[in-house]
Amino acid sequence: MDALQMAAYLGNLQTEMKARGRSEEEISRCVGYARTLLRSGLPVLFDSRHVRKVLQLDQIRQQAYHVFFLHQRGKLREITAPSLPLKSRQRWIAQHILSQLPVSPHAHGFVKSRSIKTNALLHAHHDYVLCMDIEDFFPSIPLDAVVRVFARAGYSKSASAALAQLCCHRDVLPQGAPTSPSLANLIFSPVDEELAALAGQHGAVYSRYADDLTFSSDTALDRLEPAVHDVLQRHGYSGNRRKTAYFRPGQPKRITGLTVQNGSVRIPRKFKRALRQEIHFCRKFGVFTHLQNIHAAKCVNYREYLYGKAYYVRMIEPEEGERFLRELDGIAWPVYYL
Fold this sequence. Notes:
alpha+beta; 3-stranded antiparallel beta sheet; 15% strand
């Protein structure tokens, strides 16, 4: 919103409040509150009733979620997914509020211009790499921490509580809501800063992609892991010791699912081989017969599933990804996939 639009909005607000017989003190307070939010590029939401009206919450069930499990980068994740009407409201919050708030430079997941690739490249030229995992990352973040995010952004206590309730399930961040990654980045930011300072004390660099922590250095990092666990525990998180990996010079390194070796970042060969095989069988036998052969004849979104994998490859290895995409374009897809 530019200066003219802001002035027009505030003028209309002042006129409307006067027409309703509000006191000059109340008008001044509300106009100042709105001005602060608008200057930060944030939508004006005065209180819980206003949140309810703007987001039309009377038309949805706020705790409509379903749970399923997903294998992702070698992890079995429990996904608590919101209903479509609830998800649309959460996306509005993510787009209009959370995306306007500053994020730690150490966070590479779900941040514009950063990715799984930028995260791995940061460590590609170092001899020693320590990879750690936060256990139950999203469910470790409570409702009151989410309320504080909106309060720090400038929202009233009432509006902050209403927005936070809309982003939480059973008083924690749900893994599956579109607001959860951004909220986790914002809430974990002080811990990121502390871990980066700790890494510096050990001559290392630090980055985080969602719940994956990576430290790298040209000197051994043997004494760093216990100190990281201490920091996490102090802030209410737990490191998953079973998923800790320590790589030494000469070893191919695996960072957030990517293979890092000799300064380059690549997709693991196993992943590309499996995708190449699926494309080959689809072209040789046809999509329907191939799905029957693997006992998945009713597999939904199979076309999107394969294209998603190809786009993932292209993000890391552009030429290889383009080859996969051309091969997928050449498949005779059944009508129900078009």
